[in-house]
Design a protein that fits this description.
There is one protein chain. With 793 residues, the chain is mostly beta strands. It contains 6 helices and 44 strands. Strands 35, 37, 40, 41 and 42 form a 5-stranded mixed sheet that branches. The chain has a 4-stranded mixed sheet with strand order 2-9-8-5, with no helix packed on it. Strands 10-16-15-12 form a 4-stranded mixed sheet, with no helix packed on it. The protein is extended and about 180 Å long. The chain crosses the membrane at residues 12-33, 612-641. One of its GO terms (biological process) is calcium-dependent cell-cell adhesion via plasma membrane cell adhesion molecules.
């Protein structure tokens, strides 16, 4: 530091210390560790010279000390800045001493002059990074490095300067406030921070202001609360505002640093606008054939509000015959859909006038009533070509059964409801009258009978009649015609079932044999009443009589008790049944009565006359069962004997009856070409035999697994012979004699070649002449050449 600057700084410190000494009592001064050492800045030595000789410094070797030093942050001079100076009373010049500095930043940030004790800051300091440093000072012997005093701790504080602007950490901000809010309504609050020391000076004292956003909003300079500043802010006019907020330190004075942020303020909707129809009169043309529930038109009331505040509901509040239409609200489009509740008829009413209202669903209770609007709807009904209309949807007709063909059953009528009034033609849907039992007149709709009807077969006939306009055949309507067939008495009564009565031999006279009832297919209105009687030929029947029970049934009674099966086993009783129809109908029904043997209690046991000739305890059924078993046993025996007689004989063939061709297999050489008596010559044509397959003589060969023999060399007679025999064997493979193989050691005789074996020859091969083999033909030529070569050797 220049000497002039150091002198000025010393003067400042001297003045401050004088003021402090004068104002602070002596007892409040704090000594540093020992009396022989003091921690002083460069101005402390000067102070000692100024006050030397005064009584407050006359105490034994005690200096005034400070345990703190200060240095400005962000100092950027060309030389290291002097922070302070260390001094001890031992430094009198005769003792070589050395000042030692240790602790935070010692040697890197702070450096000390070992001789003078001056402390310098070597680097640029930032209070926001570190506000103070704790260090330790000690005096040692320069030669021996032995400590002369105990270490003393002190602090170097970094003094703050205004080097950090305010910052909005949470910005940018978004806020919302209802539209039409009162002036002074709070919107939101912003917060800025300053990294400078809030205690030292005004570096961190912030003041807020609005740079953009006036006159709509204002901000409190100290609390940073943003408020509404303008009355009647309407969302429908402007929905969003951008406000720029500034925070400035140094209390807002000149030279202070500042930071800005933005606040986006959105006005939220309130229901302050009523729905409004785009026009006061709506006109629609609806065809009269429009179906129930189908839409006929749409109306819409627009609302400048949004969301729930813009939703409306529609109603028909007035109009002629307003119950013909209804109006519903489409939740998606917010339109009113006009729908039909009742059918339209152009010929009856051609136009309608309705008054429709649209009202908000949500409203402010303070307003007293919801917002609403009305409009007029005029509807013109358009005439359409309608199908014919039957006078009744369903027709019920009646006809007597067995009525004659072409009888008129009834008439159906239909008309064209249009103003033009087209003529109508009638038809029967033949899908409902497959048997074509009815006809209809195409012009007047009269239904006639085409085939006779039987009530007992079908009581009801349901057919469909169509009516078609002559002018437009596509206009068709249908009606159901139900035809009931009325009953006439055309069926005679008959027994309700096939009765079979049983009469006990030991029965008593007057005993009820059978109760008989009748049925009638007819269905008279007054109900059935049947009359029973015996045929005239049997009015004086000596065996049976009938009694009326009064409920359309009769009881058949026996006249005596002398019925016997040996005399007559079965009786037939004809009975005439007559109904009460007009005209009456009757039929003769026969009751079969069987005479049976009964127990004393009257329980039927047997009704057959053969039971008398059977042994005691053996009935006819048991006898039949026994006879059936005997016949079955006889049939089984006959079948068994027949099968035994026709059983196949054993396949083992006696030697004297074995005339089959044989293939002889032996180890000795054969007797020549003429030796054909004891073996099949075909073996010579196939030396390999049949690949070792030896069929057995005692069983029938299995043709499925018999191997096929391959043909031998082509010969003249032998080859033809083999082919013929092979063809015969293929055509009749099961016919005897069966091929077999026999093994025995007979060579055969009569061969002109003699024996080919050398076992019975006394001479050697070298003594024999084999030239005769050449004379046997080309088959033995090669053999002769081989033996000739051996003899030459």
């Amino acid at each position: 530091m220049p000497k002039r600057s150091e002198e000025m700084l010393t003067d400042v410190w001297t003045s401050l210390l004088l003021v402090w000494i004068t104002c602070v009592p002596y007892t409040s001064m704090t000594p540093i560790i020992s009396q022989s050492k003091s921690l002083q800045t460069g101005s402390t030595a000067l102070l000692r010279g100024l006050v030397e000789g005064q009584r407050i410094l006359s105490r034994a070797k005690r200096g005034w000390v400070w345990n703190q030093m200060f240095v400005l942050e962000e100092f950027s001079g060309p030389d290291p800045i002097l922070v302070g100076r260390l001094h001890t009373d031992l430094d009198v010049g005769s003792t070589p001493i050395k000042y030692v500095l240790a602790g935070e930043g010692a040697g890197t940030i702070f450096a000390i002059n070992e001789i003078t004790g001056d402390i310098h800051a070597m680097k640029r300091l930032d209070r926001e990074e570190k506000a103070e440093y704790t260090l330790t000072a000690q005096v040692t012997n320069r030669d021996t490095d032995q400590p002369l005093e105990p270490p003393s701790e002190f602090i170097i504080k970094v003094q703050d300067i205004n080097d950090n602007p305010p910052q909005f950490v949470e910005g940018p901000y978004r806020a919302s406030v209802p539209e039409m809010s009162q002036v002074g309504t709070s919107v939101t609050r912003v917060t800025a921070t300053d990294a400078d020391d809030p205690v030292y000076g005004n570096s961190a004292k912030l003041v807020y202001s609005i740079l953009e956003g006036q006159p709509y909003f204002s901000i409190d300079p100290n609390t940073a609360i943003i408020k509404i500043a303008l009355h009647g802010m309407d969302r429908e006019m402007r929905e969003e505002y951008l406000v720029v907020i500034q925070a400035k330190d140094m209390g807002g004075h000149m030279g202070g640093l500042s930071g800005t942020t933005t606040v986006t303020v959105t006005l939220t909707d309130v229901n302050d606008n009523p729905p409004k129809f785009s026009k006061s009169l709506y006109e629609f043309v609806i065809p009269e054939e429009l179906g129930i529930g189908q839409p006929g038109g749409k109306v819409k009331a627009n609302d400048r509000d949004i969301g729930e505040n813009a939703k409306s509901t529609y109603n028909i509040i007035d109009g002629d015959e307003k119950d013909v239409f209804e109006i519903t609200t489409d939740a998606q489009t917010q339109e009113g859909i006009l729908r039909l509740k009742k059918p339209l008829n152009f010929e009856t009413k051609k136009s309608y006038t309705l008054k429709v209202e649209a009202a908000n669903i949500r409203f402010d209770p303070s307003s007293g009533a919801p917002f609403k609007d009305t409009a007029t709807v005029k509807i013109a009904v358009e005439d359409s070509d309608e199908p014919p209309v039957f006078s009744k949807p369903t027709f019920v007709l009646q006809v007597d059964e067995n009525a004659p063909i072409n009888t008129v059953i009834g008439t159906v009528t239909a008309r064209d409801p249009d103003v033009t009034g087209s003529l109508v033609r009638y038809f029967i849907d033949r899908h409902t009258d497959l048997e074509r039992q009815f006809n209809i007149n195409v012009d007047d709709g009269k239904i006639t009978l085409a085939k006779p009807l039987d009530r007992e077969t079908d009581m009801w006939h349901n057919i469909t009649v169509t009516a078609t306009e002559i002018r437009n055949h596509s206009q068709i309507s249908r009606a159901i015609v139900a035809i009931r067939v009325l009953d006439i008495n055309d069926n005679a009564p008959e027994f309700a079932t096939e009765y079979e009565a049983f009469l006990c031999e030991n029965g008593k006279p007057g005993q009820v044999i059978q109760t008989v009832s009748a049925v009638d297919k007819d269905d008279p209105i007054q109900g059935h009443y049947f009359e029973y009687r015996l045929i005239p030929e049997m009015l004086n029947n000596p065996n049976f009589t009938i009694k009326n029970n009064g409920d359309n049934s009769i009881s058949v009674l026996a006249k005596h008790d002398t019925f016997r099966r040996q005399k007559q086993e079965m009786y037939f009783l004809p009975i005439i049944v007559t109904d009460n129809g007009n005209p009456p109908m009757s039929s003769t029904n026969t009751l079969t009565i069987r005479v049976c043997g009964c127990s004393r209690e009257g329980i039927v046991q047997s009704c057959n006359v053969e039971a008398y000739v059977l042994p005691i305890g053996l009935s006819m059924g048991a006898l039949i069962a026994i006879l059936a078993c005997i016949i079955l046993l006889l049939v089984i025996v006959v079948l068994f004997v027949t099968l035994r007689r026709h059983k196949n004989k054993p396949l083992i063939i006696k030697d004297d009856e074995d005339v089959r061709e044989n293939i002889i297999r032996y180890d000795d050489e054969g007797g020549g070409e003429e030796d054909t008596e004891a073996f099949d010559i075909a073996t010579l044509q196939n030396p390999d035999g049949i690949n070792g397959y030896l069929p057995r003589k005692d069983i029938k060969p299995d043709l499925q697994f018999m191997p096929r023999q391959s043909g031998g060399p082509n010969g003249v007679d032998v080859d033809e012979f083999i082919n013929v025999r092979l063809h015969e064997a293929d055509n009749d493979p099961t016919a005897p004699p069966y091929d077999s193989i026999q093994i025995y050691g007979y060579e055969g005789r009569g061969s002109i070649a003699g024996s080919l074996s050398s076992l019975e020859t006394a001479s050697s091969d070298s003594d024999q002449n084999y030239d005769y083999l050449r004379e046997w033909g080309p088959r033995f030529r090669r053999l002769g050449e081989l033996y000739s070569v051996d003899n030459q050797r």
